[in-house]
Queue: 2 jobs
Job 1
Amino acid sequence: MADLILTGASRGIGHALALALAERGDRLVLVARDRARLDALVTAVQQKGGKAVAVPGDLSSLAEARALGQRLADVVSPGATLVHNAGLWPSKRVLTPEGLETAFVVNHLAPLVMQRPLLDAQRLRRIMVVSAGLIIKGHFDAARTPTGEDFSSIRTYCNTKLCFAVAMRELAAAWPGIDVVVLHPGVVRTDLGARTGPIGWLLSLVKRSWESPEVCAARLARILARERWSPAGEARWLLEEKEEPWPAVAEDEATRRAVRETTARLLSAA
Ligand SMILES: NC(=O)c1ccc[n+]([C@@H]2O[C@H](COP(=O)([O-])OP(=O)(O)OC[C@H]3O[C@@H](n4cnc5c(N)ncnc54)[C@H](OP(=O)(O)O)[C@@H]3O)[C@@H](O)[C@H]2O)c1
């Protein structure tokens, strides 16, 4: 039995995916901030005959992400799959204790910090990144995106998801022994990007026509069941289940260099 680490397991797509995987045989290592919801999910997985353990952690702080990664490295065995699914679509600019924009941390820097101890301890065989088709709208401004000076209630989400996708392509090249895939999961009815007031009400109306987390989870479970996702040293891009060429914005050399250099600088200072 292998381990499968799933971040963002407390709600939405991650919660549905944990339930979809309960009978597949892997031990699920469930990560999110909400311990009560994770504990309830562990029980639900066990009731379906599966195995699961909760490892709560917060990705809005680099120090906590590092500690979380260490806890995960202690808990999982070599050969594990990591599903980076946790995500945040922020409505306003909020800075972390490190002075960085919160979505830039939760969606990009913290998952990199969290996975470091797992890589160092050689725990990972595969990594799936639940990204977003909206990376095509991303624009990384090295001077302003990390601190959210270019904050936009739409664009920031796209920018931060683009950064992480680009960083995980680099990861795939640096760790050719790990199979890496980056994907758009679908357009799914979850709390992601929830707003208050009339806009929130309108959004919840629009979301009624979106697919359920269970439909998306079944899709991700099928992808997880594939033998192989990408050639060694590469990360392939999937739109739902279909492999597509990487969007031009993720191929752009200047963007890739800026993300690489800025990420390295911020993580070395952290
Ligand atoms: N829904 C869509 O249509 C859609 C489309 C494209 C891509 N995606 C991507 O799919 C992934 C899952 O999204 P979703 O729609 O399921 O969203 P969701 O329902 O809002 O769930 C987000 C998950 O991320 C976790 N999370 C948020 N902030 C965190 C933090 N600081 N530390 C640790 N965990 C945190 C949450 O857990 P806690 O609050 O308990 O910490 C929750 O389990 C995201 O990466 C999103 O970008 C979604």
Job 2
Amino acid sequence: MKTVRITLMGFGAVGQGVAKTILSKNEYLKKQGIDLRVVGITDSKGSDINIDGIDLKAVISRKKETGTVATGNMSALDIIRNVDHEIMVDVTPTNIENGEPGLGNMLSAFGAGRHVVTSNKGPLAMRFSELKEAAEDNGLFFRYEATVAGAVPIFNLVHEALAGNTVTGIEGILNGTCNYILTRMAEERMPYELVLKEAQELGIAETDPAYDVEGIDAALKLVIIANSIFGTGATYHDVDVTGITKITPEALELASQNNSVIKLVCEAVDGKLRVAPRLVPKRHPLAVGGTLNVASIQTDLAGRITISGKGAGSIETASSILSDIIYIARHL
Ligand SMILES: NC(=O)c1ccc[n+]([C@@H]2O[C@H](COP(=O)([O-])OP(=O)(O)OC[C@H]3O[C@@H](n4cnc5c(N)ncnc54)[C@H](OP(=O)(O)O)[C@@H]3O)[C@@H](O)[C@H]2O)c1
């Protein structure tokens, strides 16, 4: 049995999803020969450490009852540097101003000899090459499946299953909130403002929806795809971005009369990165409904491969994180 110790930086929806998934998959992991222990957890108010493994049930209850995991106040960076563990899992909020605290967590982890797994887009959208180099220079794994399309394994598919192929282009729908709004507008012939309000009430859209509806979130994901798959060294400023705020029910009705739907499509083709509303034929594989995400990958050997699934959610995102943890554990 291989003991693999991880730390969890952030204990919100995704962090707690990871903890619940580790609890529910305990037997499964043991059968794989992995004894997975969480030795440090932080949130914005403090931290909890146990070098023998934190009682995850207790920490989930404590977070629910008191609003924090804290039993002490050792900082994230202190834990990363001074508590022995193999993998640092960063699930702190996405920050596109300066990437913090995730960026500092990740660079410190590589400096301290920890592998990194993350769902946090900010640092990757801003400083992908630097992070990749820091991992490579230290002989460490850097895995980030959960940063793009939640549960949908785009990077695993391209880097493992499609190894040997040259990817010539990628198109995708990578923002569930926009897809939900466009789907409801088309189905119910409702105006944008009303559907947005409905999405906010259902918790699908944020109170400040700009990050999603203006295409920023989708563009950040496209930047990560471009860097990871095409090695382009792109940043957010290289993406031509148009959001969905100007789409009218009349435009969707016209599209429908032509057997098409309007989707917020991300594309990386011929070195160009674009996020924009586009007409998609109703029977096209990209025409997925509701909050679903989809990625369609054009390759030289395998042709076109399309995968879709849930782009967000606590347990769904934890699925990708656990898969990255297991990948690293198998290679230790
Ligand atoms: N939710 C999804 O479905 C989903 C899907 C894919 C990717 N992601 C990405 O995954 C990450 C986590 O998402 P989430 O939904 O779990 O966010 P969340 O619910 O807001 O949780 C963020 C966690 O980070 C903690 N935190 C904030 N600032 C911190 C700091 N300076 N140091 C340590 N911890 C800090 C928060 O502490 P408090 O608990 O004290 O507030 C909270 O526990 C984000 O980058 C997000 O973009 C989310």
